[in-house]
Amino acid sequence: MSALKRTALGSLAFLPMLLLASCAAVQSGADILAGTGQISESDRQSIVKTSQAVSATFSQITEEQEYYIGRSVAALILNQYPAYDNPALNTYINTLGQVVVYSSTRPEIYAGYHFLVLDSDEVNALSAPGGFIFITKGLLRRCKNEEMLASVLAHEVAHVSAKHGLQAIKKSRLVDAFRIIGTEAARRYGSEELAQLTTAFEGSVGDIVETLVVRGYDRKSELEADDLAVKFDVAAGYSPQGLTDFLQAMTGDTAAAASGKGWFKTHPSAEQRLEKVKGRIAALSPVPMEASVRTKRFEQSVAKLK
Amino acid sequence: MKKPIPLTLSLSLLVLIVSLLVAETLTVKVQSTGLRSTPKFYSPAVQTLSAGQKVEKIAVQNGWIQVKTAGGVVGWVHSSAVEVPKFDLMASNTALKTQASTSEVALAGKGFNKQVEESYRAKHKDVSFVWVDKMLQIKIAAAKIEEFMKKGKLGEFGGGR
Fold it and tell me: What domain range is A292 assigned to?
């Protein structure tokens, strides 16, 4: 190998280190140049702003911030769908939900996961960041056993666990928020910073609600949530057949599909998802089977809804 | 003739020795979590740990970390409840920082917090948070969840894996 080639390969190996160090380096480099008068203050600010914009991502949102974003998203969902005030049913959904959470990839989040039935005949299930998970009476009526319900809840837990909701926030909001967080040392903000943060917060919450209620997640996120749901089901001891059974029921529900509301508006076609889910289950075989003891308690818990 | 130890092996040995010598301090990043007697969610909590509390890592097992509190109490926490310090290659200082600059600890209480929610609610008086708070009050005792799993043949009581 020639000396030239060796040098070139050596530089290539060093490249990832340089890339990792680049954001912080850009900032300190800009500070030095401004200090020596080689660039103006406005140039320095724009260089630093650009490097911050590059590094602002949803993954920098802390657990606590995710919780506060989720609270407002949940409040807006509850503004559209009333809560179903049935303590026995909500206890059942929450107990089952926790079992799924225990088997998930992010079981501990800031204030834990909480589940609530919505008093609506529309078929829908929604999850806000921070673990606020909703399921409508309409969807519950479509479930025939505990496995189907567990699969729907597992799909929603997966959206939270993989932070799909937070990924719906436009980057510009995060750039604005992180700029204020970065400059202010205090935990309580002055009126100007508070107004700017509130605007970024309002925008972030709006981005997520629009995705959950109007546009839906992209296909990639939905398929990832299905994949994870199968994984969580199997880990918890539920038959992942619950997910295929649910999707099958959705493909046959032409009346609800024709309404174009809720789940049918925001999810990719059930047929497309079914194929992928079946492949995933086959790869994990053998998987747990449905148990009559679970189906019996499911029927008792949702009996009043029928 | 004795073979010299390859460089990569000796480096990994060095890293192993250093990591064994330096006790790792973890910080709780969730509002509260149980310090459990065994590495299971429905295992009774010996103590409650709060956000920001520091614990020392002892051992790791299937996503659970055995820790010791400042008061000397030993128990298990789930790895998703704590922030594990990591070496920060982004640090501009010559000395390596052991905590990432955007860490949960550094940003605790900052950004979108209670004050920002209050400011948002003042602007949107029509949005009710009553059921959000009611939802947060729904808490199922660990023993109830264990019973539910046992009766339903779930997790370790059935076909879970």
Answer: 63-166+214-305
